[in-house]
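fyi for ur records
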Amino acid sequence: MVRRAAARLDRDAELLAFHAAAIALARDARASPYAAWQALCTRLRRCGFNAVCLTPPWQCRDDIQGAPADVDHADARWGGGAMDATLARLAREAAAQGLTLLLDLEPDRVARDAAPRTAQAQWLESPADEPAGDPRQPAARHGVRYVRGRPAPAAFLQAWQSRLAGWLDAGVAGFRCTAPQRLDPSDWRALFEPLRASRPALRLLAWTAGLTPAQSAALAGAGFDGVFGSIPWWSPDAAWLDAESQRLREIAPLLAAPLAPAGGAPLAPASAAAHAALRALWVAALWGDGLLVGSELQRMMPAVARALRWRRQAAPRGRPVLLCGRDGWATLIIRPGPPGTSHVLALDPQAAHEPRVDWSAGAALLPAGVPRHLADPVEHCALYRVAAARPVRATAGALLPGPPSACDRDARVVFEHVAPSVAHGSLAAKALAHVPVEVGVDLISDGHEQLAGELQWRAVDQAGWHGVPLAPGDNDRWHARFAPRRVGLHEFRVCAWRDTWLTFCRELRLKHEADQDIALDLAEGAAHLRAALARRQARGDARRATIEAALSMLNGGPAPADAVAALLRDGLAQAMRALAARPFMHTSASRPLWVDRAAAGHGSWYELFPRSQAVPAGAHGTFDDVIARLPALRAMGFDVLYLPPIHPIGQSQRKGRNNALQAAADDPGSPYAIGSPDGGHDAIHPQLGTRADFARLVQAAAAHGMEVALDFAIQCSPDHPWLQRHPDWFEHRADGSIRHAENPPKRYEDIVNVSFYDQASGRPRRALWRALRDVLLYWIDAGVRIFRVDNPHTKPLPFWQWLVADVHARHPDVVFLSEAFTRPRMMYRLAKLGFTQSYTYFTWRNTRHELDSYLRELSRPPVCEWFRPNFFVNTPDINPYFLQASGRAGFLIRAALATAGSGLWGMYSGFELCEAQPVPGKEEYLDSEKYQLRQRDWHAPGNVTAEIAALNRIRRANPALHSHLGYVPLQCANEQVLTFCKATPNRASVVLVAISLDPWAPQSVRVALPRWLFGLDDSADLHGEDLLDGARASWREAALDLELTPQRPYRLWRLWSRPLSS
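which gave:
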């Protein structure tokens, strides 16, 4: 198994190197004599290409491109000799310039008058099958014939196999099959598998651009090393590219071509077509795993060379994500590069303006860091690099607020209700890198003077503060926002003062409008300006010139109207704000803010038991078996692989199947009974593999764009080494026996709990606390950054506050998921103490009223300031009653609710197979995987794998679904349907969701269209795209009528207000 996994990784590494290739397409090699070929190869290498793909230089008619008359002899312009010899010379000269030679290949298409050796008559369509007499067919179709039958004749395949072997021996490295859909996949396998067996370096590409999904899917397993997407026909406001690419990448790595290889004339560099082609080139450079560039761009080789050079340096390697821009915002293509980096290509969808980037839209997909503008590679297009910033370093327990000062008591400007604020500022509110933090405060002061304020913020390891002005709102509520770019502890505060200049300007305007004499007021204004210039802060400040100009104007005795206009200008107001005195300025106490990385707020979790992943029946699974499942999990769109405890399992009082008190000899026991002579929490169960195997799993998961999350369960089997080494860490009963874990009347015979406090003194057992922390640090060193914490509500709150702070002080990027199925206040308190995410009551919310109330609660202050819900649809412990009775439709309903309701959701394996057989009368699975191996048929009929993949794809492509925030309930009269919108604050992403809650019967619903979200009146057009089937519509109606069925119980629409160009 280890050798097979290593072979897979080696093969993947070879393909990665190959698909980093930049391939130049020379469409008509027959027109290029050898001297021109040499010059072309030299030019291509200088430009940065490392491969060249040719139309074979065989003999064929000029009016029928690519269809050979004699496949075994070169065209006269190449000397007319044997193809093997001609190709050998072309390959040598290409190799001399460092280029790999590929050939276009269409073996089933020949000239009508082809030589017998090229195509025997019995292989081809009969004359009755030919369209030569059909006037609707193009003329070129009349001169060709095609191989008959699917599968193709065996003799035809054998002849081509022999021919291609000679070409490969001559130096050809591979082929681009330009019409792969015309041969049966079994024909491609029969043709190429023997060749690859003796020539493992053979590379095969399939031109799948423009094929239907069914045609492309049929090529899976046909042996191709690369496929092509449809970028040549894509526009930046179309979302289909992402879905197509995900589908094609399940077949093979995806190469990209900016233009369809048509062999047309080179584009004029200054033309609109050339600009569009260069935009497509940069899209292809970032989107594809490899690049194919046609001869149409040969007049723009410097621009092509720039794109190729950037691609080599940037090394894009993860899967890209497309965020389509709407309503004036840029379309973003985001792709990970080397660890901790991502590149972003921003395009104006209309190709009319410079792209307007909403960085919060990509926050769930980007590392924390300041976006760096690299270049504008072409008009209406911008390229950025985001590299992970150094995490904030802070000591555990930093930023505890002090008592109010005398300044607070004597202040003339008073602060109330500063938000976000957790426990009156004693605990940290939560934020995500790149996502703006909205700060609000009530400013109260006596009199009629105008107030001004500023929000100040910084990472706690920085000396200086950043500042942004506070803006007034209703009822003395002021607001400002900032977007943190680093992970870790930050602090913010507000300051405010009585603004003398604003007060002066207000009174001046009112007096002037009332036609009063303002001569004395102008003199007072000049005094204010002189006072600002006299302050030390004004020395050397560029804004000083603005104030000096205004003062000079006043000294010239202007007309009152001119003076008022000059003094009320925004530029002068900004200069005075910066340089004038700030009387009675008051600054609030700092409040802590914890900034997490993207995975803290957006993720799709998949839970599996590694021991159940082996293919042979009854075999114990290993980490290598988990590695083998990663492609399937990634295809479903999951980015977190969560493993229950992987540690040695105790033998003493081991549980049997279905929680039986007696275990059979081959029962594996519960993984939550942690510890045996093989080790404890820092050891691995021997049957799963070694630490090196686990490291390979972490590495392989990262290569698939996934993170491994581990279960942190603070409990021990009676065989745990700690019981021998530290018996004082455990509670004992009156008879001296160990106290087993209990939740009366339940008793867990196979586990015991540690005791966090000394029973006699009541003091914390600090050695135990440190040992538990060191367990986490051990797995962090092993590459794990996400921990699901088992039952934290049964352990002391002071312990969690200390542990989370201590770990975060060392590793701010660590994510803690709290499995706190407990009372609401305890669940929320754990979140306030630092847990990043939490399981929720979503599992038991089934009616429209229950769901709507809960989504409102979670998405609004104060809960949203410190609590992030992770909507698990099931767990190994919870087989929800709803799923037990609802059939396949119920699984679709719960998946839609979870994926649309929160930026975080999860499922335990088997959900995709609609597993729901319960222990009678309980929310527990019969034959629970906690106590036995459960091997599954992942392709069993009735599964919802494709629907889960589609929902995850929709989530990633729509920023409104990246979070639990932005929930907007919509009116509908049907109590069996939940209707709502999810919207980003700037409305750049709005998704309308309708989900039937009835798994048995169709439901009709009329959904009120939320024009008011966009500031539209009731008669304005509203536009939408069905995210399930891609259909677009424009509505003038007040409501949308939908039909929901058990087979399709949900609908999702992306909404926008401005019409699109395409």
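The chain has 25 helices and 45 strands. thats all i got for now
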